[in-house]
Amino acid sequence: MEIGPDNMDVPVAVEPDGAVDLDEAVIVALGCNDKGAWRDCREALEAALARFRPEGIDVVMRSSWWRSDAWPDPTDPPFLNGVVMVRTAHDPHALMAALGRIEEAFGRRRGERNGPRTLDLDLIAYGRLSGDLDGLILPHPRAAERKFVMGPLAEIAPEWVHPENGETARDLDRRATVAKDAHTNSGAA
Description:
Layout lengths: L11 E2 L12 E7 L8 H12 L4 E6 L3 E3 L10 E10 L3 H14 L14 E7 L4 E3 L2 E3 L8 H10 L12 H7 L7 E2 L5
Antiparallel strand pairs: 1-3, 2-5, 2-6, 3-5, 4-5, 4-9, 7-8
């Protein structure tokens, strides 16, 4: 299936063969709460996904968009988040560099921790890799506690198993403590 405006709210298998070995899954989380130059955060996130392929990153599956209050400051604009499984020839560091280039193209400025951002791309997992890989910690050290990550991941891969704690995305979603208000979103943010 192609990703398009008529099917943006449901998980989409982009490649017809779609089979993904969850032990080899490369998972990226996307987030936005500052629309920047786009009409809304949904448009910004869709535009970010369109930049993946030119960077050598193929989206295999994607979640719907999830809305949540900003954290830790709920007075900041709400977030729109999602998760994608990707295939890439990049090693984890090269993938992080590619994600950084996409963020930069979208006006991401590093500054205030957890502050508003036009685009946030996080590498959640790279197969079963675990630990500190020369400054890159995998799996993402805080992803398991974030509903805005585990909810979308459980939507597309409920049986994915966390490389360190051995729990499924479904169970982690149920127990997530950060952004418990996260929910699928059919409107724009």
